[in-house]
Design brief:
The structure holds two protein chains of two kinds. Chain A is an alpha+beta fold. Chain A contains three helices and five strands. In chain B, strand 1 and strand 2 form a beta hairpin. In chain B, the strands form two sheets. Chain B has a four-stranded antiparallel sheet with strand order 3-2-1-4. Chain B has nine helices and seven strands, in the order βββααααβαβαααβαβ. The chains are: A alpha+beta, B alpha+beta. The interface between A and B is medium-sized, with 35 and 33 residues. Strand 2 of chain A pairs antiparallel with strand 7 of chain B, so a sheet runs across the interface. Chain A: It comes from Lentzea albida.
């Protein structure tokens, strides 16, 4: 796997969206693949939570008839956790502080996810 | 309203020829400024939000609660307006769009400031930075020297190498401009340094060779799909449903 190319994509997301604090690419079963996180963030915990979160959100979207899942976001009083599906086998997590602009994040992550998806497809 | 897209970007709310509010992802909003400074508690803020429906405006609801006066509310709204404009101007501007149809109203509008005056003020704030740096792209680490004041020590404590001036402003609940100006002076006094990329970004991976599911032997030219893999996997007996 081309980790340098994946790292460049994660770096772009954090550089181009004010408020993004940490990023993680994980397998959809919750195993971390590549992380850029602060010391207080445990990559394996975040990956496992994101996998569960994405699974539930995807099922909710399907059961309620909301179409294809684009993102699922946890809103906290101090920040956000957004989870995106990269493919059936991988996901991306973005953590942000309370100033994060979610619209801007979606605008930046949508093309990034496509590129990450093609980097991960051998 | 004027929408400025970019990083951090911003939204300028205009009313009768004056700017009444500027919201930006680069600067803490009125809520953070009121709550972090201890003027009101988070509970009071949320209660005022609920009461603003009946009171007609958030400003009236806040004043009616009695813990903050009208002059103080106006001062905070104006500070947030200036800071939002500074945050937008200090970042990258990709596109500016005038939106006359939007029904979005700012939470706490100020009495307003003429656009030309605001522009002049923001240009002055940007020019006044002792050491020019980006409050978004440049991330900070402690410098060679140790600061003596409490305020500066707090900034250094937040300079983990991953945080920019904007991130430190949000972490401390203070406006972007004063934090950026202070960091600019501290860079000049070697109390802070710009973090190298290896510190600003800390990538780790676990060497996973591939995410692909087990594939049939070479030469078959066919791949297994996840859905066709028998469960439990690796059970020893092949019951694959895909054509071999």
């Amino acid at each position: 796997m081309d980790y340098d190319a994946l790292a460049a994509e994660l770096r772009k997301v954090r550089e181009n969206v004010a408020g993004v604090t940490d990023t993680v690419i994980a397998a959809s079963d919750g195993i971390p693949i590549l992380t850029d996180v602060a010391k207080n963030v445990e990559p394996s915990h975040i990956s496992a939570l994101a996998a569960a979160d994405l699974g539930i959100a995807r099922q909710a979207a399907e059961v309620v008839g909301l179409g294809a899942l684009r993102q699922t976001v946890v809103f906290g009083s101090e920040g956000y956790m957004a989870v995106y599906s990269i493919s059936r086998t991988a996901l991306m997590v973005v953590l942000g502080d309370k100033g994060l602009n979610l619209g801007r994040l979606l605008h930046e992550t949508r093309p990034a996810i496509e590129r990450i998806g093609s980097i991960m497809t051998p | 309203m004027l929408r400025v897209s970019g990083n951090a970007g911003g939204v300028f709310h205009l009313h009768e020829g004056v700017v009444v509010a500027v919201e930006s992802a680069g600067s803490p909003g009125v809520e953070t400024l009121l709550v972090s400074s201890g003027v009101i508690s988070a509970q009071e803020w949320y209660a005022a939000l609920v009461e603003s429906v009946a009171a007609g405006s958030l400003r009236d609801a806040l004043v009616a609660r009695g813990s903050v006066g009208p002059a103080e509310v106006e001062a905070v709204a104006l500070a947030a307006l200036h800071d939002g404009a500074f945050a937008t101007a200090a970042g990258d501007v990709e596109e500016c769009v005038i939106d006359t149809e939007s029904t979005d109203v700012p939470l706490l509008p100020a009495n307003g400031i003429a656009p030309a005056l605001l522009l002049e003020k923001v240009a002055g704030l940007l020019d006044a930075l002792t050491v020019p740096f980006s409050p978004y792209r440049d991330r900070l680490v402690p410098g060679r020297r140790t600061p003596s004041s409490e305020e500066r020590r707090e900034i250094v404590a937040h300079a983990t190498g991953r945080r920019s001036a904007r991130d430190i402003a949000f972490a401390t609940g203070r406006s972007l401009h004063p934090v950026t100006a202070e960091i600019s002076r501290m860079l000049g006094e070697e109390l802070l340094d710009i973090a190298p990329p290896a510190t600003a970004f800390s990538f780790s991976h676990w060497g996973l060779p591939s995410l692909r599911p087990r594939a049939p032997g070479p030469g078959s030219g066919k791949e297994l799909d996840w859905t066709t893999t028998p469960w439990p996997p690796n059970c020893g007996k092949s019951e694959r449903t895909s054509p071999e």
